[in-house]
Amino acid sequence: MDDLHFRRKIYADPNTQDKAVLDAQQRDPAKKEFTQELVQLDEKIKKAMKVPVPENLCDKLILRQTLACHQQKKRQSRLQLALVASVAIIAGVVINFFQFSSSYTNLGDYALAHVYHEENAFSNQDATRLNLTTLNQKMFAFNGSFNHLLGELIFADYCRFDGMKSLHLVYKGVTDTVAVFIVPKNEQLTFSKTFSDKKLQGESIRFKNTNIIVVADKNEPISKWKKSISENISWST
Amino acid sequence: MATKQKRYEALVKALHTDLYRYAYWLTHDKQVSEDLVQETFLRAWRALDSLKDEKAAKSWLITILRRENARRFERKRLDMSEYEEASVMDTQSTSSEQEIENHWLREKIAQLPPEYSEPLVLQIIGGFSGEDIATMLNLNKNTVMTRLFRARNQLKEALEEQPATRGQYNG
Questions:
Q1: Fewer Cβ atoms within 10 Å of its own Cβ: the N or the C terminal residue of chain A?
Q2: What fold, for B1-78?
Q3: Within A101-168, where are the H helices?
Q4: Per CATH, the architecture of B96-171 is what?
Q5: Where in chain B is the domain with CATH 1.10.10.10?
Q6: pTM > 0.80
Q7: Residue B40 has what pLDDT?
Q8: What is the pLDDT of residue B163?
């Protein structure tokens, strides 16, 4: 290794572990001395480069990070709260929409669905019989009353008819029960005078503030029911 | 979270000194160096999960700091300011002979062109090998070694002219 090459290597890195450089140092005391000189220079440079570091820099760095982290967490929790609140509101709106909006467009469809839903709740064999007074007490809510009981009344109670408070009557019929709904007038459901499906038939009667719907199976003379309702009911307004 | 915090604190304690000194030799300004180190550690915290190998932490932090420094110039649209004598750290108040020599040498280091002083700081303060420095500065290793050679050569020559200058201090 020539002198120039050696010097370049030592200048670039006095602590080099390059084998050729180390060998050259072993062979030539002058080179060894030169290396020592440069190592000492490096020591001086190192001392000079070690400028004083601000005393509290370390603490500052840790503190600043801790604060930033805390802020971030606070922001995050606020964001989470807002998110949860929005989800809750949307859920509320959606539930409302499904529960209280009508999924049926006319009286007939809804009446059929309602009867099918309660198909097994009533039967001709039920022993309960209600009297005219009980019926008319319930009818009071609709400002109406019956002059006669019309038949054997098994059940009379308020129920939700597509979200509206209505009166559900169940009479004993020829082969199965007859359902009569007294429903306030409503814009959402269109009036259907007669309706039927494979098993059930129904007819509606339009009064001033109220619709009455009769639903029964195909063996039942619906028109007769309709007629006797019309003749027996009276409205106070 | 706690482990991340501990990891971060360990990193700060172990490396903030070297990082600050590196920043100082890059910028020649105490305040700017402190800001740079703070910004660097803040970014390091955010990206701490991406640091897999603790041994690579120092070069990782230096890379962040260099990027921050470059961004500083983009932001302020300042040109790399020339070295000014007044900006060099003044430690004369405790003026032992050692301190005087340090001060004098600091000026000489500060007067080196940045492309010479930066590899030298990385080698001496950072303890990085020529290959490491080449990777960090995105240079070829031979270029790095040449710059290191020139940097030491200039400092050595300056030191050899020193006695006259130093005489004034020693008076």
A1: C
A2: Rna Polymerase Sigma Factor; Chain: A (1.10.1740)
A3: 107-117, 132-139
A4: Orthogonal Bundle (1.10)
A5: 96-171
A6: no
A7: 92
A8: 58
